Target: NOE3 protein
Amino acid sequence: MSPPLLKLGAVLSTMAMISNWMSQTLPSLVGLNTTRITTSDALTQISPKEGWQVYSSAQDPDGRCICTVVAPEQNLCSRDAKSRQLRQLLEKVQNMSQSIEVLNLRTQRDFQYVLKMETQMKGLKAKFRQIEDDRKTLMTKHFQELKEKMDELLPLIPVLEQYKTDAKLITQFKEEIRNLSTVLTGIQEEIGAYDYEELHQRVLSLETRLRDCMKKLTCGKLMKITGPITVKTSGTRFGAWMTDPLASEKNNRVWYMDSYTNNKIVREYKSIADFVSGAESRTYNLPFKWAGTNHVVYNGSLYFNKYQSNIVIKYSFDTARVLAQRSLEYAGFHNVYPYTWGGFSDIDLMADEIGLWAVYATNQNAGNIVISQLNQDTLEVLKSWSTGYPKRSAGESFMICGTLYVTNSHLTGAKVYYSYSTKTSTYEYTDIPFHNQYFHISMLDYNARDRALYAWNNGHQVLFNVTLFHVIKTEDDT
Model:
């Protein structure tokens, strides 16, 4: 093959390699094989864990609506991660654009040579037709030599046509790279090209402002229950699981108490993740059996109802000892005044933003619910409120900000039907539905730290989110 043909062959070989590289590598570099990149407001969908979450609404004295927002964890600074990924992606596209530009210059230079050569070949072909028409004017030998040369060049014509097509493809690639670079630059400008320290300080500043705002929120009124989220499926139909609402942010221990009677074993897990995987960290053998499923962990101690009695026990997890015990005067026990599902659920111990509570019924109050606030150290009753709601008609109950919320059933179709405020000593009938996914609830308890309801739902450990209506404190409030 002649030198021009060798040169053309090298160019075509390079074109083939570049085309193959573009088809296989370009999609993975720019994310076209996984994520469709557009000029929308975000490059990818940020998951709930990484994003900002609004978990409650508020209203100030002037009637303005305020939303309370939960910031993402500091070590999950997703916008910074996305910015870094975007910069890296943009650098790759820019490098690729430079390579395409070099290839394009070489291609255009050779393309001009090809066009010139194509013109010469077509002219040569026309001359051969003329010669062939008047072959008598030339010597037979010279004509045969020229025809052989032409025969050698004829196979090159379709190659030249393909080369023109590949040159157009390079031009298209160049235009697509330019467009993609423009899109990525625009996205980068929209989300802001912050470095890590700058973005980190912005997050910390926002978190501080949110915490200051939270300090102005008084206790809220229950407005809505959403969920449930199934955390785990384990144990019998009846049981309790809980975390400590007064524990530090780094302390996420979970306690698990299966069954409503004839048991003294409490299982501890270091975190929700360990609880889900079954990685038990410690086991406690209580000195007494418990009754019911309405126990509570509060400030490092377990509070439970001693089996076949109206005695409340305070048990320390740190010392594995009973720190206090006290009888609830006149409180019914051993299925005298249980919830609708039975199970020795006469005495319900719970905690909220205000403190420790006991919910039960007495003969003196005609079997209706009595609410008592307890001293967490001595278990002494600080104050009691007598309601008019029959304990045996209640499915479950829980305290939020000093208000008792009572469900009308433990079965499908249950809803929060009644509430009693210890602040005003008044009650009201409510209609707040929630999804009883597994048809039988034997434990429902509010955790003030998590702002969630923990539930044991027919052998499933689930969580419900709550929406509270907050009243904003003003400078005039005492």
The first helix runs from residue 3 to 30.
